[in-house]
Specification:
Layout: H1 5-11, E1 12-16, H2 17-23, H3 28-38, E2 62-67, E3 94-100, E4 113-121, H4 128-138, E5 145-148, H5 156-167, H6 172-181
Parallel strand pairs: 4-5
Antiparallel strand pairs: 1-2, 2-3, 3-4
């Protein structure tokens, strides 16, 4: 499957979970996401989809990328790990999600930003996370940059590549300059695991 922005625009919808599912009559994709991610209590889940119910209180702060009826699931190749239970439906399926930090950011600079509490794509190899970040940043209501609040040890390679691709940051000096340019403090971010 081609993973460019045109393909995503054609086959998906992105937005706040409540807004997206107000447009969709079939809610089985939302039910699958809530059951298998948000409310997943399985500590031994090999796909690490454990929401443990803690996401539920912030459900309105979750943005989702959902499939339209025409999404080409049959075009996914064997290298693309699909962690979605497609038995109930292929329409309105959550392909990826951004759980925003619930607090409001005090704008400290002319460059506004918001923070990601957690981000995940449920199909690998399609650059879903990067696409969702770009969609969120470009929405007319936001027009901001979206940064991770915390970079956990398992996500450091992703964010290293993301900062390099998007912000052309390839070493610690460039990262420190960006942090200063955005007036970020140690209270704003937990990026200690990120090494460049």
């Amino acid at each position: 499957m081609n993973n460019n922005n045109k393909t995503f625009l054609e086959f998906t919808e992105f937005g706040k979970i409540e807004d997206v599912y107000n447009k969709i009559q079939d809610r089985s994709g939302l039910i699958e996401f809530v059951n298998n991610v948000v409310m997943n209590m399985d500590m031994f889940d090999e796909n690490n989809n454990n929401g443990y119910g803690i996401m539920l209180k912030d459900l309105s702060n979750i943005y989702v990328l959902v499939s339209k009826a025409s999404f080409p699931f049959n075009k996914l190749n064997s290298n693309q790990n699909n962690r979605i239970d497609l038995q109930g439906t292929k329409h309105g399926v959550v392909l990826g999600y951004i759980w925003l930090c619930p607090w409001k950011v005090k704008e400290k600079s002319s460059i506004p930003y918001h923070f990601i509490n957690f981000i995940d794509s449920r199909i690998t190899g399609l650059n879903i996370a990067k696409y969702m970040i770009r969609q969120y940043e470009s929405e007319s209501l936001h027009r901001c940059h979206l940064f991770p609040f915390e970079i956990m040890s398992g996500a450091q390679e992703y964010w290293k590549k993301y900062f390099s691709d998007v912000y052309n940051i390839n070493n610690m000096n460039e990262l420190k300059k960006m942090i200063n340019d955005y007036h970020l403090t140690t209270n704003d971010i937990k990026w200690d695991n990120l090494t460049l």
